Amino acid sequence: MADISIRKITKSYGKTAVVHGVDLEMAHGEFIVILGPSGCGKSTLLRMIAGLEAIDTGQIAIGGRVVNDIEPRDRGCAMVFQNYALYPHMSVAENIGYSLKVAGRPRAERAERVAAVAKIVGLGDFLDRRPGQLSGGQRQRVAMARAMIKEPQVFLFDEPLSNLDAKLRVQMRLEIRRLHQRLGGTSVFVTHDQIEAMTLADRLVVMNAGRIEQVGAPREVYRRPATLFVAGFIGSPAMNVMTARIVGPGQAVLESGATVRFNPGLAAVTGATVALGIRPEEVEALAEPTADSTTIPIEFIEELGAGHLAHGTFEGNDFVVALPASVEAPTDRCLTVRLPPAAVHLFDPASGRRIGEAAPAAVQAAALVEA
Amino acid sequence: MVERTPILNILTHAILLIGLVMLLLPLWIVFVASTHDFRTVNTVPMPLWPGTHMVENYIATWNQSDFGPKMLNSLIMAVGVTVGKITIAALSAYSIVYFRYRFRMVFFWLIFITLMLPLEVRIVPTYAVAANALRPYQEIINLTGLSIVLPEWRLLNSYAGLILPLIATATGTFLYRQFFLTVPEELLEAAKMDGTGPLRFFWDILLPLSKTNMAALATIMFVYAWNQYLWPLLVITDPNYGTAVMQLQRIVPGPNFGEPPRWHTAMAGTLMVMLPPLLVVIFMQRWFVRGLISQDK
Amino acid sequence: MSGKRVTFNQRWLAGLLILPQLLLIFTFFYWPTGEALFWAFTLEPPFGGEMQWVGWQNFTTVFEDPLFWNSVRRSIVFGVASTAIAMGIGLLLALFVDRQLPGYKGFRFVYFWPYAVAAPAVGLAFRFIFAPDAGFVSAINQWFPNLWNPALDGVDAMILIILANAWSMVAYNFIFFLAGLQSIPRSLIEAGAMDGSGVLRRMRDIQLPLMAPTVFFLIVINITDSFVNAFGIVDITTGGGPARATDLMVFKIFADGFKGKDYSLAAAQSIVLMLLVCALTFVQFRYVERRIHYT
Hints:
The complex is a heterotrimer.
Chain A: E1 4-13, E2 16-26, E3 31-35, H1 42-50, E4 57-62, E5 65-66, E6 77-80, H2 92-102, H3 107-121, H4 136-148, E7 154-158, H5 166-183, E8 186-191, H6 194-200, E9 203-208, E10 211-216, H7 218-223, H8 228-233, E11 240-248, E12 251-254, E13 259-261, E14 273-278, E15 284-286, E16 294-303, E17 307-314, E18 317-324, E19 334-338, E20 345-347
Parallel strand pairs in A: 3-8, 3-9, 6-7, 7-8
Antiparallel strand pairs in A: 1-2, 1-4, 4-5, 9-10, 11-12, 11-14, 12-13, 14-20, 15-19, 16-17, 16-19, 17-18
Helix pairs in contact in A: 2-3, 2-4, 3-4
Chain B: H1 6-33, H2 38-41, H3 54-64, H4 67-98, H5 104-113, H6 123-131, H7 135-144, H8 159-167, H9 170-182, H10 185-193, H11 198-209, H12 211-226, H13 230-235, H14 244-251, H15 263-295
Helix pairs in contact in B: 1-15, 3-15, 4-8, 4-9, 4-12, 12-15, 14-15
Chain C: H1 11-40, E1 42-43, E2 52-53, H2 57-64, H3 66-98, H4 104-111, H5 119-129, H6 154-182, H7 186-194, H8 199-210, H9 212-237, H10 249-259, H11 263-291
Antiparallel strand pairs in C: 1-2
């Protein structure tokens, strides 16, 4: 059983704190993706699981065993590095089989296992080549084969797809997911690409500035972002955010004086200033104005093929509306829109936290941490 | 990395300390020897802690070997060679990297080949040229049948003789070339669009960028020039132009003498000669390591 | 060789910029080397007059001279021994400094100092330390009389100059080995650790093989430098003795040419020496090109 338990982990380099008290529980067999911008501490966290970075405070347990002081090789983890870290002077076969060689396995056994693993990743014909003679995608597969052959409990991936071109990335995503399903075990995948994160994860961990912002299934994180940061980070194009003031249950007023309605069940305090958000794809575009619609000016349209993005302003705020292909792009530089109250999110501008339902039916998945 | 290797760590530190002792011990011994008097320094083994005669030894050596002017000559030569080498290296590398002409690679290889044969390996013929530096040109002119007579230019017993033959530098040209190749193309493109000419570009943009590089090179070349021994011995016979390092030969009586050498003053002299390049290295060391490593592959 | 895709057009300027160095290497390298070649094949008659062409005579004189072969043997022993010692120690120190245990920066700083010391100064210091009647090593003579005497024993004298040269070269090798080690991406080391490879094993399996190019490069530099340093060290310590035990090639050329005034002989020996060094460099470049560059 290789569940991973991370409790109150902190890490600093000199005086700079990089990870501020992270708690996370991962069940055996899960595919966890840690997502965040550069410098948020996600790679550091991964490396602490691997044993490549020492832990300042807190503890990490793998399969129930505390591994803080255990060397990388004894933790039962295998890692695929961002730059693959293949040994340039060894052949593909030697690269893959190196861990077995160090463990003292006999040559016949090594050859057999290397061949088997190479077959799975489709490198059977390349065993005698050197990494320098391989393409990016092939090198990636060697890196994965090298990790697989150890039959680890835990697979760690440190942004392995970021050096590949877009098409290859999509292909490799599928292969990684397939591999995970085939091998069982727990996978922890670090990336800054939200599309990768959304498509691969069983559960998503969003990190920012050394802290976990939200943990949850991709769908959950998308529909109910726990903080302003998550709201802006997940979803492309980003959520539209405007400043507003609460004037009554389900009613908020923008700076321009226009009213926006939202779900009255949310625990918004009358008189409070909030950050009000709505996703571009949830804005309704109307052919005819209605009682609660607004006509907004459009500056320019981005054509996506499968739809269009209309960029304009809503009551003085920058605003983007995502229109499906079936809706024609407005030619007269204005668009009639309606903001469905159910799709409006509210956040406390000071803390960035989501303003949720008043009743204690909070639907937040695992740990949301505050240092 | 989490790695528990206490024994190996102790061994590592032990070896590094032994290395330290091995490398510093001779320097320490030279220093200590220069602080004892004649009798103590000749006892075997010599005590390893400093004595009390440092100042008198240094004064004695300084006067006896006339170190003052010698150190000055060394300084002039070292600075001259350093400045010369850096200038020549920068100019040559600039020509090879930033211009395209037919003989470019030919010239590069011509310069590069000189790396293979350091001065010590070709002293005899180089000395002959030093006796009259214009002779090669005279001979060429003679071959062409023209009857121009060039004046003689004796390089012996002069600063020019100490400096000029040492200025050509394949190493420096190489290192500067490596550096120029790492300068982004866009810099030159932007400069050209601003209407910058080649000389301006060199002076205003390339040279300031190469400061670290230059400092590293300057250190190596200063040490190299100051420590020159064979060449000065050949070209200088007039004691007025003698260098400090040359003096070392005079400090120790040759193997034929019956009397034990006056090691205390000899070591004092050695220390004085060693000190300037050592100080330059220590002072520039931050720059040096950075410069050399960024050159690497 | 890669080049800039954007260049300047003023070719006359390019010529002007490179002219000083070209003049210098012509005057002080190519012309003298050509002349040496010429002299090696000629002889100056004892009573003055034009130089006579004597073909290979100078060379046969050189090759038939047992003293010449003695100096060749001595130079090879000197070069190989001091290179092996200096590179071995330099590599060891570099490997351990590269581990970056606390305090490594201090070691790195100090290990470089011996480079700054001039060859004759090194020679003088070592001559003192190893003197038969002063210094330190001769303390051994108090228990085993006459065990150590570089003034009388040729082997002792060789040991003395080999150690002196090796000491000088360790610093240089250390710096290059360290640079080579630090150019190996850390992720390779980490991958090795995750594969179960310990510190020493990683040195053997990962770091050393990737250092092969540096090793080849340094071998040639070390050997060439042993020729360069030889003179300074030998002149100050042993003067070529005892009984020519340390009569290295450069020293002998100097003695023959400038003390003995036999320029033709010195020129011939110079040519042989230059060919030797050239051959070494060629071997290095051809061999290195075949083996390096895995990346």
